[in-house]
Specification:
Pfam families: TrmO_C, TrmO_N. GO terms for molecular function: methyltransferase activity. Residues 5-145 form the TsaA-like domain. This is Putative methyltransferase, YaeB/AF_0241 family. The protein is mainly beta. It folds into two domains: 9-141, YaeB-like (Elongation Factor Tu (Ef-tu), domain 3, Beta Barrel), CATH 2.40.30; 159-222, no CATH class. The chain is built from two helices and twelve strands. Strand 11 and strand 12 (214-222) form a beta hairpin. Bound molecules: S-adenosylmethionine.
Length: 224
């Protein structure tokens, strides 16, 4: 069957490039995310929503569409060494390229169109098309004792070491950089202590290196 769906809005996030985006929501809480609804949605469409603490956001991995999909992927959680079926993972390279993130709803700004939903830190690229929003209902959806396959608990964190002058950066930008780097954004299979990586986010270009369980921030350049 063929269905046609239209986006209902767009994501605004500090993540302007795919590299370095956290792999799940709330791993970088400083990275506030805003869902901007299309102008056709009025105050009626969000009536009652502000009373929920979390929302399910369905979206399209639009920057993965051209790359297609695969039957099996190498989840970063398994160090990129083992393959799992695409339906056992949260990979963007899936049929239909649909994503689902549970976002903390901070505030609903419905004072004027476009309506804006201000959310906690997401795992979404700036510009991601949103296709639906639903309230999160803990009594049916929170199954905290369910087996969770190869994903056991939160991922380990790196210790962040600043080796460059950063006192001019806004506090929130510093927090986003630190929280992102602590997640170890390198591809899972790479352990190259000499390699310098670059990551663009929140209006800056960050150069860093990872040695053992420490990440060294080498240089920060403001983007024009
Ligand atoms: N929580 C969602 C889910 O389970 O469907 C997304 C999980 S997926 C592992 C998160 C990754 O998707 C991010 O780290 C980023 O690399 C990638 N991503 C986020 N937004 C994207 C977009 N619009 N297009 C392509 N890839 C995207």
């Amino acid at each position: 069957m063929l269905f046609e769906i239209q986006s209902i809005g767009k994501i605004q996030s500090p993540f302007t490039h795919k590299f370095g985006i956290p792999r799940q929501p709330e791993l970088v809480p400083a990275a506030e995310t805003v869902i901007v609804l299309n102008d056709e949605f009025g105050v009626e469409s969000v009536r009652g929503l502000a009373e929920f603490g979390y929302i399910w956001v369905q979206f399209v991995f639009h920057e993965a569409v051209a790359e297609g999909w695969v039957q099996m992927v190498r989840p970063p959680r398994l160090g990129g060494k083992k393959k799992m079926g695409v339906f056992a993972t949260r990979s963007p390279h899936r049929p239909n390229h649909l994503g689902l993130s549970l976002l903390r709803l901070v505030r609903v700004d419905d004072s004027a169109r476009p309506i804006r939903l201000i959310c906690g830190g997401s795992d979404l690229l700036h510009g991601t098309p949103v296709v639906d929003i639903k309230p999160y209902i803990p009594f049916v959806e929170a199954q905290t004792d369910a087996p969770s396959g190869f994903v056991q608990g939160a991922p380990p964190q790196l210790r962040v070491v600043w080796q460059t002058n950063h006192f001019r950066l806004p506090e929130n930008t510093k927090a986003i950089i630190e929280q992102c780097l602590a997640q170890d954004p390198r591809p899972a299979y790479q352990d190259l202590p000499e390699r310098v990586y670059g990551m663009e986010l929140a209006g800056v270009d960050v150069k860093f290196r990872v040695v053992g369980d420490e990440v060294f921030i080498l240089q920060i350049n403001e983007l024009a």
